[in-house]
Amino acid sequence: MKPVEGVHAEDMIRHCMGEDLKIGANLTWGPCFDYQKQFFCGTVDKVSKYPYLLRYDIEVSGFGSHESGHLCLLRLKEEFIPAATRKTIGRDFA
Asked: What pLDDT does residue 16 have?
């Protein structure tokens, strides 16, 4: 594993199963965003093994995770919001 690639789905689903987490979110953010965005599909990831479901999600610095935690946005269909740029998604380390 390379830090700029993040955690792969095959590794994350094993972690979810080991912790008995029924829904897991593989977050794409910061230095691994450009690599991880290729795996985003807007549906449950193919490595999921019912009842353990894994989805890709996005983490944006300054989004309020310090107050709300990391959110799993189920049914997210697009990784980019309208008018998003590389600066506003995955590159904002503020």
From this structure: 95
Radius of gyration of the chain (CA): 13
Sign, Cα dihedral of 8, 67, 20, 50: negative
Are the CB atoms for 90 and 33 separated by under 8 Å? Answer: yes
DSSP assignment of 53-86, as one string?
A: EEEEEE--TTSSHHHH-----TT---SS-TT--T
> Which amino acid, residue 19?
E
- HSE value, Cβ hemisphere, 13 Å, CA-based, for 29: 15
| Closest by CA position to 22, among listed 51, 59, 55 | 51
Two tokens, residue 70? 């990391």
Beta bridge partners of 24: 54
Q: Is the pLDDT of residue 2 over 60?
A: yes
What's the pLDDT at 22?
A: 95
What predicted TM-score, i.e. pTM, was given to this entire model?
Answer: 0.65
